[in-house]
Amino acid sequence: MELAFSILLVATSALLILLVLMHKGKGGGLSDMFGGGVSSSLGGSSVAERNLDRLTVALGLVWGAAIVAIGLLNAS
């Protein structure tokens, strides 16, 4: 059982990295200080961005649950 949760943890970790890298930058960071924040977004976020946000949050919850499950299995 612990092996299954470990595999789930590795898979969700890799997917979370990819999903976070796919997000659009919000600005206001160090890149704005050096001229990287020239472009402005018109309007709100698109449907694809909102779905990406939802998918990232859901995968983060699965990732957290896998960590808790591994911790509980190791404690007993």
What structural class do the secondary elements suggest?
Answer: mainly alpha
Label the overall shape.
elongated
Mean pLDDT score, rounded? Answer: 84
Tally of helical segments:
3
Largest sheet: none
SSE order: HHH
Specify the helix fraction band: over 70%
Strand runs, count: 0
**Beta-strand content bin:** under 5%
The oligomeric state of the chains shown is single chain
**What value does the Rg take, in angstroms?**
17 Å
Low-confidence spans: pLDDT under 50, at least 5 residues?
none
Q: State the end-to-end CA separation.
A: 13 Å
Describe the structure.
With 76 residues, the protein is mainly α. The protein has a domain at 1-22 and 46-76. It has three helices and no strands. It has helices at 2-22, 30-33, 47-75. Helix 1 packs antiparallel against helix 3 (47-75). The longest helix is centred in the last third of the chain and has 29 residues, at 47-75. The mean pLDDT is 84.
